[in-house]
Specification:
Length: about 575
């Protein structure tokens, strides 16, 4: 039965149908992913973004079901805001980030009449218009022929429709579909590849789900399928040119593409974000910053991943940082043609505790998953990272004993998909650094894993941290605020001065010998601690070298590795 208005239940239904629709279209959308880089994951990113929105909406419905003082279903405003928030915190990739802003724009209109349980066709028209405008404003340099063009066309078509929500939704869908078909004529890279825009194709799928929500019908399913069959992804066999690893811009010029995609959530004020946008715009391209009210999702393609993260640290509190290395010859387009999304032979995926180490690991070629204090990654995040590495063989470094079972479960799931995964049981990020230092992709997989495991196992690890509460330890009872010195996971001493505790921990670790000391200094550590420890090693341990890294907001004040 057709529904003529938009309420909380319709939002829930729409999100669920959109997820199903994207699930069916995911591989097709991945296959036509050309712009801004041909990394073959737009469909997957859109699916994960909407999946996060679905989870948030389901959570708000569940909260009302268990709330005896407020039984029933949430308001339209609550459901719309949950949808937008879920998409924001779960946004993946360029297109996923833009779609998150589209949903946020809609929610701003739908939540404006917070006393209303539902809205009509006029409300939906206004919501679609605000969505398109908000998405365009979030992109540093809007390009026509992308999901932005499709969203604008949908809003324009909806604005000319008279009737209930079903009529408006159908008009938006038809307008988006027509705009999608026109994208190859707007963006040369699409025309030369023989494809439509992947992000726009995903938005058409989301709008098809909106039509189905109100009418119960799947619009134009046969036509869309036929359209997909005529979309042809060209391969290098279509042209004898071997390609040169460049990315073609919308204006037809060719340039080297950035090496990394950096995404993070950011807690910051409006003024700080405005400054951040200018800085990131100077560092790279494909800049999209969405959100508001103190929470933002930042997406950019850069050559210096560390600088992009540092810019976020200066602006506020970045977390859930994801850094993806664009493999040479794997993600760029040449003269508008799509290179097949071939898997690399081997990759490393590592969980890291701070932004500084995330940049360090990424520069070494690893795919990273950030684990902030109190926010360990779940199995699904590790599975996504293992897939994102896009390799036939993957070495997984959990870098935390508490993540061993989570990492093992993720590895087992990905093995079922035909990917060879070996987990090295690294217990600290400094052991991961040691393993990564001897990693050689050209070696046989088993030999590489054995070498990396041996290097990690030969590295003792220490840590200096602040006690959060009173507790019993191997060194006695500690109080909240005490400085703890840990060696190989056990508390070895309790003190009051960070530098003296760190020096004692280092001396005890070097008592058993060593050739290299690795210090990873957190943001909360005293400025002088690294300099003091380096001097101590030079004076007392003549044959030992020291290397220092900045770990960022890593939880521990200091990480110490001795090889």
């Amino acid at each position: 039965m057709a529904q003529t208005f938009l309420d909380a239940l319709a939002v829930r239904t729409w999100c669920g149908l959109a997820l199903e629709t994207l699930g069916r279209a995911r591989e097709e959308i991945d296959a036509i992913n050309v712009y801004p880089v041909a990394d073959g994951d737009t469909g997957t990113n859109l699916y994960l973004t909407v999946e996060s929105a679905v989870a948030a909406v389901e959570a708000v419905f569940a909260a009302h079901e268990v709330d005896a003082g407020n039984p029933g279903r949430p308001s339209l405003a609550e459901a719309a805001q949950a949808m937008a928030h879920g998409a924001l915190i779960g946004a993946r990739g360029n297109s996923g980030t833009i779609v998150a802003q589209l949903l946020r724009g809609m929610a701003q209109v739908l939540a404006a009449g917070s006393d209303d349980a539902h809205t009509d066709g006029e409300g939906l028209r206004l919501a679609l218009r605000r969505a398109a405008d908000a998405a365009r404003q979030a992109v540093a340099h809007p390009v026509e022929g992308t999901v932005l063009s499709v969203a604008s066309a949908a809003a324009d078509a909806a604005g000319g429709a008279e009737g209930d929500c079903g009529t408006v939704a159908r008009a938006a869908y038809e307008g988006a579909r027509a705009a999608l078909a026109a994208t190859p004529g707007q963006l040369a890279v699409l025309e030369r590849a023989g494809v439509v825009d992947a992000g726009g194709r995903g938005l058409v799928a989301v709008l098809a789900a909106l039509v189905e929500t109100f009418t119960g019908e799947v619009p134009g399913a046969v036509a869309v399928a036929a359209e997909a069959r005529h979309t042809r992804v060209r391969t290098p066999h279509d042209d004898e040119s071997p390609g040169d690893g460049t990315t073609e811009c919308a204006d037809g010029a060719e340039e080297d593409g950035p090496a990394y995609e950096v995404i993070y959530l950011l807690e910051a004020g409006d003024l700080a974000v405005a400054r951040l946008k200018k800085r990131l715009d100077a560092l790279g391209d494909s800049l999209v910053v969405v959100g508001g009210d103190g929470l933002w999702n930042v997406h950019v393609h850069v050559d210096d991943a560390g600088a992009a993260v540092e810019a976020g640290v200066e602006a506020g509190r970045p977390y859930r940082i994801r850094i993806t290395h664009f493999g040479a010859g794997d993600v760029h387009t040449v003269r508008g043609e799509v290179r097949p999304r071939e898997r690399v032979q081997r990759a490393v995926v590592a969980v890291v505790p701070g932004e500084g180490l995330a940049g360090l690991y990424a520069e070494a070629g690893a795919t990273t998953v950030l684990a902030r204090p109190g926010e360990p990654p779940v199995s699904g995040e590790l599975v996504e990272a293992l897939r994102r590495a896009h390799a036939r063989e993957v070495v997984l470094l959990p870098n935390d004993p508490e993540l061993r079972h989570t990492a093992a479960a993720a590895a087992e799931q990905v093995r079922a998909e035909g990917i060879r995964v070996s987990m090295i049981p690294t217990r600290s990020a400094v052991q991961g650094i040691a393993a990564l230092a001897v990693h050689e992709p050209e070696r046989r997989f088993d030999e590489d894993v054995v070498s990396m495991t041996s290097a990690a196992g030969a590295t003792r690890y220490g840590e200096v941290a602040l006690a959060e509460r009173q507790a019993w330890t191997m060194a006695g009872i500690c109080q909240a605020g005490d400085v703890l010195g840990l060696i190989d996971g056990d508390v070895a001493m309790i003190g009051t001065d960070v530098t003296s505790v760190a020096a004692t921990v280092l001396d005890r670790m070097l008592a058993a010998g060593g050739e290299l000391v690795t210090l990873v200094v957190g943001d909360e550590a005293p400025e002088s601690v690294a300099e003091h420890l380096e001097g101590r090693v030079r004076e007392a341990y003549l044959a030992v070298d020291t290397v220092v890294y900045r770990g960022g907001r890593q939880g521990a004040l200091l990480l110490i590795g001795v090889e």
